[in-house]
């Protein structure tokens, strides 16, 4: 019983420990530090935005060039292949229809 | 009766004048007027710092968060809707930012395994021990008890903790707490009542476990 009373008293005292609490205060240089932080942040943002802009434009140029090189290499080979295929196709047609075989008509007359 | 009506009209006029003054002040802030910003900081810095100290109990964290509060005010003053007073809005930011830091610290504690793993390869982070610090406004003879009480406040639910801290540490009225927390006054009263009841229970079991001399 005595113990319970003691605990209750301690609880009440602890509950009142924040009574008469003085408000915490900043020091007089708070605004100076804050404005310096804002200024630094603005500068670093400018540097960041410049470096981001530079990096972005460089990446765009590199992408543009590599796309050009890739497409030139790829389609260039395709055009060469196309040329070869087209020549082969003409030869085949010519062979099939014997367009350039002059002896065809001579043979035809003889028969 | 006439005196009451007169006082009521004086109060209304005062509120209207204040609102007009505040609107002009906010406009200056939106225009990035340095003098207006300095005035705002000087008017609110101690209360913001005190609020942050109430939650964080660490002067370095409180200073950092107070600065973050004013930076956010500086950046987003155009988002301020004027449905609450400027000081209430600033308080809200201070409370939100303080709670964000507390949540971040808790998450960090939970990820202790990964931190331990990380510290094998890197220098460990220097996280300040909150129990070492104390609100500077606490009287010397109450330091030990206040430390115990703050420890128990941390165990309350977030809403109860916010309401109790704003009312007890910051000394806000129920109406002001209600404005900051965007709740009704009865809801705040109920929160603070429950917070006190829970604290009493927690303290009782604390003193039961830690035998009194």
Can you describe what's shown?
The complex is a heterodimer of chains A (111) and B (213). Chain A is built from three helices and no strands. The N and C termini of chain A lie far apart (139 Å). By secondary structure, chain A is mainly α. With 213 residues, chain B is mainly alpha-helical. Chain B is built from nine helices and no strands. The A-B interface holds A 3, 6-8, 10-11, 13-15, 17-18, 20-26, 30-31, 33-35, 37-38, 41 and B 38, 41-42, 45-47, 49-50, 53, 59, 62-63, 66-67, 70-71, 74, 135-139, 142, 145-146, 148-149, 168-171, 196, 199-200, 203-204, 207-208, 212.
Q: What gyration radius of chain A follows from the Cα positions, in whole Å?
A: 45 Å
Uncertain segments of chain B:
none
- Please provide the count of β strands of chain A: 0
| Average pLDDT of chain A | 80
What structural class do you assign from the helix and strand content of chain A?
A: mainly alpha
Helical residue percent band of chain B: over 70%
Q: Approximately what portion of the residues of chain B adopt beta-strand conformation?
A: under 5%
Short structural description:
The complex is a heterodimer of chains A (111) and B (213). With 111 residues, chain A is mainly α. Helices cover 81% and strands 0% of the residues of chain A.
